[in-house]
Structures are given as structure tokens and as C-alpha cells.
Amino acid sequence: MRVFLYPLGFHEHAAVRLLVEYRASRDDKLVVFTCNPLSAGSRSAFESLRAVAAAQGFPEPELVLVNCSDYFESFSIVKKHLAPLTGEFVLEIGTGPRLISHVVTHVLMFTRRGFTVHYQPETGVDAPTGVSAGFLGVVLNGLSSSEMEVLSALGTDGASIAELARILGKSEKTVRNIVSMLRSKGLVEKSGRSERVFLTRAGRALVA
Questions:
Q1: Same domain, yes or no, for 149 and 82?
Q2: How many domains, in total, are found in the chain?
Q3: In the prediction, which pLDDT does 120 show?
Q4: Which domain holds residue 82?
Q5: d(CA 101, CA 7)
Q6: What's 24's domain CATH number?
Q7: pLDDT in tens, 14-64
Q8: Which H or E run includes 79?
Q9: What is the pLDDT of residue 26?
Q10: 203 membership: H or E segment, kind and range
Q11: The domain that contains 167 carries what CATH number?
Q12: Terminus-to-terminus CA distance in the chain, angstroms?
């Protein structure tokens, strides 16, 4: 099951695009967060979203009200609400109250949930993009010097484990362990029978 998390302002269009892009079904869950008290604009947007969900076979949206003037109270509300939920979390960012977007992100990171942040471009023209929790963890916690050495050594053409060991002056076993850690963080990938190692887009961003 996927759990879609959507900060709601006065428009529901981005939520609909998100559900369409991920091919959401009634087996998934949609949690909508907005400010308390509920404004007329947000109420109207939520009712429109509920109608579209019913017509298109999307999950029934659940509304959660938070205090948008108090970060810590909002954190507590979101944390308690997400506690019993399991699955793959997808958080929409780019629309709705900014405080809610930050609070939900922080709760997901604090509770060590696996999640993807889905950025909806404000231009209305550019394609949406997603960022994994693993990359956000790297941004927050950084990498070891050994991990950065491997990323830097890969360059644009990639390298085999043996080549990396020779370049870095490390044993192949050590390099293999480092590469395994980097793969778990979504920063490198292996390709071909030789298991040549390449940087992912996230990995390239860190060494550019």
C-alpha cells in the first residue's frame, strides 16, 4: 500500500496530478493536511478532491487539521496520525501551506519512514520530480571521507571494483563494502556482467 500525503491549500489540482502519475487505487491511502480552522477555500478544494477520487477510483481522502501557527503542536498531531500507517509514503511538496510540508517531512525523517518527496513545479510546464528519503538523509548527515572518495573516483565513465581498488589504494573487499553502502543510499548503481559501478543522478549531484 502507498500512503499519499498532501498539504492542502485552496486548490486540489496538484493532488489529482499526483494520484494520476502514481496510478493510485482504492487500495492506497490519501491523507490530506490543512490548517485549523478549516477555511472556506480549503473546504471547497477538499470536497472537489473527494468527488474526483470517488469518480476516478482513487483512495478516499482523509482530512487532518493542524495548527499552522504552532510548529511543535503540528509535529505532534502529524506524528500521532502517521504512527499506525505503514507502506510506501509519498509526500507532495510545492503546493499548500509551507509549514505543513516541512512538518510532515520532519516527522517522516524522525520516525525513519521510507518515503519519496514529490516536487510539483510551480511553473505548470516543467515535469514533477521526486527525491528519496535516502538522499535527504545523506544531505542531512553527510558521507564519510571514504564514501566521497569512491564517488569522486567514479567520474562520468564509472569503474569496476578492481579499478576503484587500484585508484584508491584499498582492498577490493573494502571497496565492495563502500559501494554496497552507496547503493543503499541510491548514489551508485551497477550495470552489465562486469558489474561496473556508475553514479546515479543523485550521486552526480554530490560530486559536481
A1: no
A2: 2
A3: 73
A4: 2-139
A5: 6
A6: 3.40.50.11700
A7: 999 999 999 999 999 999 999 999 999 999 999 999 999 999 999 999 999
A8: helix 71-82
A9: 97
A10: helix 201-207
A11: 1.10.10.10
A12: 36
